[in-house]
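Minutes, methods subgroup
Present: GH (chair), OT, SY

1. OT presented the first of two proteins processed in the latest run. Sequence and structure tokens recorded below as shown on screen.
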Amino acid sequence: MSATQLKEIHYTICPVGNATYIAVKRNMVHEGMQRFGITPVLLQTLDQAYWSAHFDHHDELLFREGGNIPPLWTKAKGADTLLIGLCILRQKQCVITRADAPFNSVEELRGRRIAIPTHPNSIIDFHKATAEHGFKIALQARGVSVDEVESKILLGERTFVTNSWNHGPWSATADDNTIDLDSVGEIHALNTGEVDAAYIKMSLLQAMMETGKYKVLLELSADPSLLMPINNEFPNTLTVSKKLAGEYPEVVVAYLKQLLLAAEWAKTHRDEAAAILAEQNYGVVSHFFGSYYSDFNENLTINLSTESVTALEGQKRFLYDYGYLEKNFSMKSWIDDTFLKAAWKEIEAERQQ
């Protein structure tokens, strides 16, 4: 079927560092679709009935790049999607406590309370799963069983289905880099003494550490004893509707090509890329630089490497074991690398002209 019959595609992006956000902000996705006469449309600008597709992928015209928990959950429920790319962008992930806490290590969390935020009204509680997996990795790395700590469930009301895709509950701006940290459930619980430790990452982590009121018990992402600090954004996932991919493969290739070119641009435009991704991460540039590693701009390229697939397999195993997935499924049957290979082939051909 010719791509000229398609008038628009839809895209959605999680508020985590990725090439899609750069490609959209630099108008690259729109430029890439021009030759087909196709308009890329942000999912959250459509009617509200579409918004939940960010989590359940019910939109047959949808590309999604972002956290891996929703697409894994969706695939386990039988959604007709394809996994066409992954990306491991290292971010600082820490187990933290108050600066005045009378302990300084994860080992000393035995018998203490850890924060597990939960949002029962959400389509898939990725926030809870992320905290549980983060703590599991941290505790096991220090020889502590999850049964030796008390999981303190913190109920939240957010559904995460919103059109405010670039404004988080703890957003900072270039004019005002202050964040109301106490409005975040697990941080409030930490401040009041309801819990003894929380798992925090990304720009929110840096904003907390700048206050001097907290200390790190373990930085998962920097610990050499850990094989992979897997979380919702490690790795990022790029999925597409199987129907869209089957009927318009050239459109999928063109879309992927723009993400690859955006990642290539970031390699030589580090500061500009940081400014774009800081906005995506609900923070300011200083927060971004403090929460990601210095080579972030070298690691935005979409791939399907063994390391990335292994990390995602580890996340799938955790989600299945903890009851988040209805059933297990074959990762191999979900992955389709033909689009990524074709996109790179086009880029290489253009470079040789």
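2. SY then presented the second protein from the same run.
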Amino acid sequence: MIIDITRLLDRRMQGRLPTGVDRVSLEYIRYFGARATALVRFSGQWIELSSPHSKQLFEVLLSPTGNFNSKIRGIIAQSFPFSMAKRFSSRQYLFNTGHSGLEKSEYLTRLKRSGLKPIFFVHDLIPLSYPEYCRPGEAEKHRHRINMMLSMGYGLIANSQETLTAVSEYAQANGFSMPPAVVALLAPPKFPYAMPNATLNQPYFVMLGTIEPRKNHWLILHIWRQLIQLMGDRTPRLVIVGQRGWECENVVDLLERCESLKGFVFEYTHCKDTELAAWLLGAQALLFPSFIEGYGMPLIEALSMKVPVIASDLNVFREIAGDIPEYIDPLDGLKWKELILEYAQINSLKRWAQIQRMAGFLAPTWQGHFERVESFIETLELAKC
């Protein structure tokens, strides 16, 4: 099989931290790398690296170092002469796990010419369903991506039943036949050992994820300003972990210019896994007030560490976490404020009740994920026969 790693290379060479999509792609390299080669797209060329050079590239992606870019260029330069005349085998599966390049017509042309059997990972349809939460023009790009998956996909992997249902409904509404598909839930990362963070002198809450409109930071920050006016120095603290994204100027204005939030709200744009684990372990709860999500990895991360969650009432959250979290409408500011105050109490009965509900929670595992993927591939093979 072949794994398209173009998105991973582009982002890593720009010095950008891995997103949730990137972490999924890295897990596919970790699992399939020993029996896969790497596809790199650049300057209109599709280059399949040799098996030895692919292994080197996979190792560098999984364990990046300070001289990452020079290592990558060196490996590709060494493999390039052996790759130019190489033809793709029509028996090979091509994994594209990051939506990368699918909006471009040349991807379709190359796929048809190659004879590869593409398996696409579908993360969400948010740019189509909620274009107001995305960059301008992203909806049209994503439409091309989904159309590509439906028209050329040998198979689809969805991160949740909610996502798969959305794809199926889109296919039916737009005249596409639905390719074979499987749902394989995503697992949380294996955080290194950490002790709960005890640097703050008040109970605190954590928000985790890129700062962008659909994550609803704006609501929580206004609630915090109200809490500060009400409680003064007794106000619980808020720790925001995540890179700044797009169309979030109103949130940035509050973070940078609202004097009353200073000393109560702390922003960490770069946070190592050990630091993140420490912040989560010491938190009263994870706050997850998103308007829409394709999955919800922070929720799984928190629950896997036995940290309570207060989240928006989204179908996908209920799919992956059942009735464990506290669910609230993302627009119900009064209810959010009420539960934050309740969970800030050291002896909160609601918080203790949620901790008890976690007793039977089993987080998805990557082993389980790939067992489903392997079984899916076997099904595709049998269908061909």
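Chair's summary of item 2: The mean pLDDT is 92.
Next meeting: continue with the remaining queue.
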